[in-house]
Sequence to fold (133 residues):
Amino acid sequence: MFPLSPADYNESLALSPKLHELQEGPCTRRVAELRARVERLRAKLRAAEEMLVREQSRAPEIGEFVRCPLTGFFGQVTKVTPRAYGRPWVEILLYLGKDMPGHTTVDLFGNWELMDPPSEDSVVHALMIAPEA
Fold:
């Protein structure tokens, strides 16, 4: 151990503001800016994740389009039956094409997912890549 005299002790205390000034240099400000940016992006991500959960769990409205992931059937919602537990049951009018609306309804029960309304190009593309029976 090295004993410090009172004069040496006071000088070492006088260095602390100078060290503090060095710590607040441009490098640390850049790190602080980056940390603040990361926190802003994390807040945006949390908000986007909350919106995603709400969108995925919301019940469809009559007139919206849904599809069945198991069968690939899709169409416009004609009836929504809420249930106490689980997802609402959905009845759709099958969509065959822009000028060929379906003529029968299908119950998808709880097995459905929301989708954007089909455009003519997407329906033609889906028919072209569908395997032939």
In short: Residues 127-133 have pLDDT under 50 and may be disordered. The beta strands are 65-67, 74-81, 89-95, 101-109, 113-115.
